[in-house]
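Sequence in, structure out.
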Amino acid sequence: MRMKRVWSLPRTIAMLIAALLALTGAAAAAVPIAGAPEFSGSAEYQFHYGFEAKEVTGDWLKLRLALEGDIGAWVGYHLDAWASLSTKPEAASKLKLGEAYLDASLGPVDVRLGSQLINWGTADGINPTSVVNPRDLLSATDLSVAGAPVPAVAATYYFGSASAVTGVLVLDFVPAAIPGELAQVEPDGKPDSLRDNLEFAVRGETMLGGHNVYASYFYGWQDLPAAWLEATGLPDPYPPFAPHLKYRRMHQFGLATAGTLGDAAVWLEGAVTVPDKLEELDAAPPATMPLSSNDPYVQVVAGADYTFNIGTGLFASAQLIYDSANALLSPYTQPGQERKAGVYALLVARYSPADDHHLELVGLLDLTGKAGLVIPRYTYNPVQAVELSIGAITGFGDDTSTLGSIVPAARGVIAGVKASF
């Protein structure tokens, strides 16, 4: 079995690491170190057994190490990296730098320099306004969305009275992983100079009526390239159409709020995304069949959670998601298919009958496509730093909807073990 190896350390990140080390050394020389660095990490293994395939369809072993500490009273640092190994669906190994940054507190201004995650938004897991970092598509096995760090400079100025403004300058464009067979196509339009790579984001926050309110703006590159099929004009046995990919910039305007209603937490988050137009996506068929669109699109999430005073606590959360591009699970349409808006419900319930035993039920419902995924999970902590989990994935719906089409392959058992230190 041939092992696919991926080493990821972009040039800009390497330069930032060198700058961080230099700044750390300078600060250490000027100010006594406040304390010894703190090490932490985890080792985790999971696998998915598919009922349809009747075999293990995916597995992954992941190791993570982190180092953080303070240099004097006003500078802190953080560095983490992870390595992963998998044998299914293909043998692959990865070694990646995670977040690596310096924090500085300069009176009313906090500054962070380095490879970092900019986590914006108020919704639980699905955040329309959190677009600074490239994000994976919603995972069908655990219904989570992960982001990748970007090399950036972020500064927050605090006005007092719970008001602040944050500005972010991204120094290098980091694309998301292209899904499916399109990953074999080389995209056009990827920036190749420092000026083209730059991205910018700003967010203001304040309190209104006891609720936190955030307004944001982002100008940068879309995580995934636009896609279309173009007629080749070649006879058999050549394919009649060839896929094309091209990166483009976009504007995004976001608004989010979070607060309480009685004893429940409530939130509302939405964003309007306006991509740059590509002539290829407006070309007349059948010479060209677009898989992406030039149209602006909207995503809105509204939700609430509540903790019931039952036993050691019953937690329940519900979110309603509107996506005008219906790109939550798939960024591209099928050839010749019209993109229709999607409405989803994400439901989560957690209950701990005892301190070391935890039950969880997660469900994703496609209310327009009449499909759904349901994931019950049981977790046991034999000791404080060790976690054993086992769950099942089931669902319903036919292949007329995006969610329904992935249900058969997703059905199965997912189990794992995680140790933290």
